[in-house]
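Single-chain item
Fold in token form
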Amino acid sequence: MRDLEGYALHPYLVYYDLESRLRHLSPADAVEARKTLADMPLGERLYGRWLVSQARRGRWQVYRDHYVPQQRADARCYHARALYRTGDREAALALVPDLWVVDESQPKACDPLFEVWMAAGLRTEEMAWQRLGLAIESNERTLARYLLRFFSGARARAAQAYYDGHVRPEVARQRSRFPDTEYGHEALAHALTRYAARSPRAAADAWRGHRERLSLSDGIRTYIDERIALGLATLGEFPPNADPAADSHSPAYRTGMATASIAHRRWSAAAGWIDALDAASRDTLQWRYWLGRALMAAGDDAARGEDVLRELAGHRNYYGFLAADRLGLEPSLNERRVLVSESVQRNLRRNPAVERLTELFAVGDSLNARREWYAIYDDLPLDDRRGLVELASDIGWIEQAIIGASQAELTDHLALRFPTPFLDIYQRHAFATNLPVWFLFAVSRQESAFNPRARSPAGARGLMQLMGATARATAASVRLRRPSAADLYDPDTNVTLGAHHLAELMARYDNHRALVAAAYNAGSGRVNRWLRERPDLPTDVWIETIPFAETRGYVKSVLAFSYVYASRFGIRVPVLAAHEQRVP
């Protein structure tokens, strides 16, 4: 520490030294350390950890006297416990509902407080019901099952039905399951909603059995009616003489009917439902495209539809590219470089936080580099934000440059937003697999934003986010060495296997990039099932009705990025080639 005083990362040596002595820091030392490290994001982190160490040693008065508001649930629970243990019991217990009525299990530090609160009889069944609803909406099944113990009588039946209807929606067929109470009605609405998404006709039959038996409110009846109607609409069974402009329709119902009408190419109806959307929704690029598309396909007002698409074609976006393609126009890239002055760059590099994040990235500590970035970013002037993005690009922190470009109003600076790192690797493996290099770049841009150390929660790794099983199967099929998990962080290995996997998918789906992208993201098994369920559709319709929201967005991004990267390589390609206009 003495020898490196003045070095950009000297504060981190101070931090780690203090951290090693954390339990033994006096309150005065902790307060002084907080002041010393106030300019770096780890300063508050260290102080928070010191507070936790005091709570764990039962130093409740120290914790209370030095507490500063924290986001972490354990710190908030320790604060309430400190209040309770130092005599302010009423204030402590008043904090518990906000800690308990949440959609996830809380840390064990909260358990003693919760036990005291429950023993005092302050937990109500209404609170438990609220938490059960939050847990079910978040699909936290273990928590939801735990909460069932807090109900009695008719509400216990309703709670069990609520949980069972979430896990097995077909229980909606059992009339005796759902008591004729407000809570039973809520449980039934949830079960029928999920059932209608899976088996619309069976859900409609079950609903008819409940409808006259229960004393439902008008709001619940309308809600369930709409969910059943939306489920049937996915099968092409639409309500007769429906008026899209009727005031009784919810926004979700109008959106769902518009989507179902598109899926079944009922173009006049689709235009009507889109026109009935609220102004904010109707003005999005997505619904502008589908309005223009529907009007042109219906033929009733083709001129208006063409005008809508022509205006949309000026946007560099998936829908803008589709609009231009449909009208036979050249899609717009709207490229505009923004240069940051040398004086801004020079002053920015002298900023201590920027010095730290630059050095942290150089030594491989991207986590703390990112913390430094976000600690200063919002307070920087726009020119400095742009300079920081350029700096990230210059030092090879590609992922952060891509993220920062959008936040710094550099969306038209394509060199920053669509870079070509590891170019020799991508070119080599594109040649070896007979794939367009711009398609490999588009997939990698979407998968990892070119972070070779990226790892998804599911365990996908590297530039092209390969799962271990996929990587091993691909390596075996092309007779390459079996890769380890660590191998997938090597750019050359990752792109080799990713390119070969994409080539296999290209062969399987006749070079149809929309299907290949969908299979890369969701798996070939799902894509094959979707093709069996919805064959012979225009590709834009098929993409819009992919059941998984993540895969829908993924395919749209890859197709849009493909066009941008092809253009950056000086190659003119159609947004969708002739053989990609429809799915088989």
User: Anything to note?
Assistant: Strands lie at 537-538, 582-583. The mean pLDDT is 96. Residues 342-411 form one domain.
